[in-house]
Known about the structure:
It is a single chain. This protein is mainly beta. It has one domain (about 15-135). The chain is about 5% helix and about 40% strand. The chain has one helix spanning about 15-20; strands spanning about 25-30, 35-40, 55, 60-70, 85-90, 95-100, 115-120, 130-135. Strands 6-5-4-7-8 form a 5-stranded antiparallel β-sheet. The longest helix has 8 residues, at about 15-20. The mean pLDDT is about 95.
Amino acid sequence: MSYDKPLPVPDPETKPFWDGTREGKLMVQYCASTGAHHFPPTTFCPNAGLERPEWVQASGRGKVFSWIVVRHPVPKDVYADAVPYAVGLIELEEGCRMTGNIVGIDVDAITADMPVKVVFHAVTDEITLPAFEPA
């Protein structure tokens, strides 16, 4: 596979998330003490203090909370061939929010509260990127 854009670098804190995307699963953290789901990953529950959240599979469904449309790349931008593209803040059914590209729709047709579902794009043998498309 050839992918010429920046790639995430999994670390011990994010490895379960990236392992999940490679398997076609959207993983988020869950705190049993508070019943809350969290993203991005942390080493402790932001609400319960020192308790370490567990990783669980999210539904992959949510709605667009907010988004931006990138229309003008900077010179020599590796994303120049992709404009216009949308980056969304997605509120997952589980209650936490996650950023990701919104794909499969004209960027001018995206609306607030639009239902979306996760899709996965394997860009290397090790990295699979999540994105969201209309549900």
